[in-house]
Structures are given as structure tokens and as C-alpha cells.
Design a protein that fits this description.
The chain is mainly beta and 215 residues long. The chain has 4 helices and 17 strands. The strands form 6 sheets. Strands 3-7-5-6 form a 4-stranded antiparallel β-sheet. Strands 10-16-13-14 form a 4-stranded antiparallel β-sheet, with no helix packed on it. The chain has a 3-stranded antiparallel β-sheet with strand order 11-12-15, with no helix packed on it. It is globular and about 65 Å long.
Length: 215
């Protein structure tokens, strides 16, 4: 069955906050708009059961192919959502509007629930909403961190921004490519502008360029 058909049917009824890292993590979600990662379909949970708790008012996805937002909750815009395959849509970061600030505990999230490792997610030329996950990090001096230069893979990255929703007023904060990011960002999302269709991948510092061919 076409993946776009699957998501168009499933999104009407079932969507949930999926969890993809260890249970020791917790997302602090301020009131207002936030970019978070981890929305996926679960057949045993109803849309209203998950978001109808008075805390989440709206959820939007960014669709790169049309350079536009599509509402996911409470009124799914199916024509727009069909522009993305289900695995790509479920592995993007989403705009989430919180009616009031609250903490979101993260639980274990397994790959068979739809989660792709960060180096399997497709990025497209232009802006992409990229979820920050634990597999992006390396352990240096017993501290978990990563930089965008370390995981750029085949991507020619132009810009990275983090939406600092905790600031008053909230603002777009530019992220330098060589800035170490700690694990406080796990479960959140950043927007990444790339020049080419590509995939992220951890680049080893020991990797060297191949030898030049003779003249």
C-alpha cells in the first residue's frame, strides 16, 4: 500500500508522543510554540486521548516539498500531509503549541515503532525540521555532546536555528556549526537549511581525503 495513503488514513485517528531515548530525559515545554521531536502513530491511542489534556492546543508539520506548514492536530490537513511519506513525516520535528508550560517525561522508543536513526532520515534542499536524538552524540571527556560539523554527513549546511521558546519574547537563536551542544537538546528540534538533498552522518575526525590521482 502506498505510504502516503497509510498516513492519510492513520493521521485522522491515531497519533501519539513517541519516545526515543532513555527514560532519564525530560523535556521542559514552556507555554507557547515549541519545536519537539517524537510524534508517531500508535494504534492503541486516540488523538484526543493524547492531546486532549488541555496542555497541547495545536501541532503543525513543515512540508519541505511545498515550503508550507500542515496542521496535524486538531484538524489534520490531509492534502498537505500526503506530500510526505509516512516514515519521513513521523521522523520530522513538529511545531507544538502548549496552552500551559509543563514537563514531558521521555520513555523508551524502539525502532519498530517507526523511529529512524538520525543518519537514515532524508533531508531536502532548503529548510528541514530536524529532531535531536541521543544517537547524534559522542562521549568526550565523559560529556555527551555533538556539533553540526561532526554530523553533517553528505549535507552542505547553510544555516541552523533553535527556537528559544523559553526566552521572553521567544526568538530564533542561530547555532554555529562548531558549537558543542549538550544533551539538554535531546527531544527538541532545530531547523536546518541545506543546499542539497542529503543525509546526516557522524564524521570521524580520523577520516582523511583519499590520495590524489597522478598528473
Amino acid at each position: 500500500m502506498n505510504k502516503k495513503i497509510i498516513i492519510s488514513i492513520a493521521i485522522l485517528t491515531f497519533i501519539s508522543l513517541a519516545i526515543f531515548v532513555s527514560a532519564t530525559y525530560e523535556i521542559v515545554i514552556p507555554k507557547g510554540w515549541n519545536i519537539i521531536y517524537g510524534l508517531t502513530i500508535f494504534p492503541d491511542e486516540n488523538l484526543n486521548d493524547v492531546f486532549g489534556n488541555g496542555k497541547i492546543e495545536a501541532v503543525y508539520a513543515y512540508i519541505p516539498s511545498i515550503n508550507d506548514y500542515a496542521q496535524v492536530y486538531p484538524n489534520p490537513e490531509l492534502d498537505k500531509l500526503r506530500e510526505m511519506d509516512d516514515d519521513e513525516l513521523l521522523n520530522t520535528a513538529f511545531w507544538v503549541y502548549a496552552e500551559s508550560g509543563f514537563d514531558w517525561d521521555l520513555q523508551d522508543f524502539k525502532t519498530n515503532n517507526g523511529y529512524l536513526s538520525f543518519d537514515e532520515r532524508q533531508l531536502y534542499s532548503g529548510w528541514n525540521f530536524v529532531g535531536i536524538t541521543e544517537d547524534m552524540y559522542t562521549n568526550e571527556d565523559e560529556l555527551l555532546s555533538f556539533t553540526w560539523n561532526q554530523i553533517k554527513g553528505t549535507c552542505d549546511i547553510e544555516k541552523v536555528y533553535f527556537y528559544a521558546s523559553q526566552e521572553n519574547p521567544p526568538l530564533w537563536a542561530p547555532v554555529e556549526f562548531d558549537m558543542p551542544l549538550d544533551d539538554d537538546f535531546v527531544g527538541l528540534g532545530m531547523i536546518v537549511k541545506v543546499k542539497n538533498n542529503c543525509k546526516l552522518k557522524l564524521i570521524s575526525e580520523d577520516t582523511e581525503e583519499p590520495p590524489l590521482v597522478p598528473n
